[in-house]
Amino acid sequence: MNIDPPESSSPPHHYVVVSFGTLGDFLPPLGLARELAALGARVDMVGPSYFAPYVQAPGLRFVGYGSAEAYARDLADPRGIDPSLAWVAEFCGGAGLTAHIAAVEAAIVESGSKVVVISPLHAVGALFAAKRHGLKSIGLLTAPNLMAIYRNPRPIAETAYRAAFRGAGIEDPPPPVIDPARTFLGDYVLSFDHILELFPAWFDAFTFERTPNSLAGTFPGETATKTDQAVQDFARGGERPWVFFPGSGGGILKVRPDLFDLAADVCRQSGRRAIMLDPRSKSVVEAMGDGVIRSGMTNLNALLPLARGFFHHGGVGCTSQAMAAGVAQVVAPVGYDQPGNAAWVTTQNLGTTIDPRALTAETLLAALDVAERLPEAPRASVAERLRREGGARALAAQIAALGANSPAHVSAYG
Asked: Phi/psi at 346 (nearest 5 deg)?
């Protein structure tokens, strides 16, 4: 696609922010997009149409693609937690490739070379469009352990991306641009102009080799903005409740479909109040016996400060939100970055870890007891540290300070 950038007096920043994956993957970039729009920039938020209800902010334009129904179906696919499969590449990255390219090129029609592309490192369609047109690009590294995956991609994932390029009519995917001896995907994802870490440097859940263009960051601290008032009222209506959340992709439920029933029984029998956040549920609040309710998604930033503790899957978003709220954690990791995050939480005395496959009434009760006995001081210290770091607002200010008009990397393929 050849585009002649228009002569324009438009603002100097036009950001195209791309995301995919689960809601936990989508919300941090969305938080950056909201804050960039608040700074007066023109911002396009690009993602599956499934996430349209979450994109509500002045000055923020949502560019959705695909069927929300099909996305929900694929999100529930149990293969999503199988580390031997290229589910993330095929379902998320490859499927969005043409939409990401189209969104970037549409922004160029409006703003020419003033467009800045911000995306996860494996959104190769967005990066391809940025490099094809000489735009500045900023990659988002959401968790430390992912750098090792990007440096050493599974061959099946590379195949999935190559197939997506050819399916889009692009016969020659981008060649390696850093080390010709390594694979296309591993080299290409690291060729952003800047790589912004969406976690603080002190969150050393994994040690990894940073690239020369890495930028230190912090946790965005973003969550669903819609607050369910009935859930808030329940949390305030008695002793602080435990909050149980299997992850926005339902990861724990793919291992333990009985999680909510098991947790409700344990909490009722031990005299604890509890809130079960079910990502499959609508906003209706359902009673599960005395002192226990089930509801759909709500604003964790508003709910967790009212909680006694947080049981979750160990995604970096949930982990950081629990840290920011200063609540005890029980982490039941399933895959991806979750086991490392869980181990770090335990090491720092912020919570405890349990294998979701080993969940029984006895093991869950023991884990809740252990978490509640942990000292409060480490949690309070980390929460204050995150408050000072500024979350998505500070990250957006850092992105804006980079400037849209500084030179981008020269395209390796014209």
From this structure: -65, -45
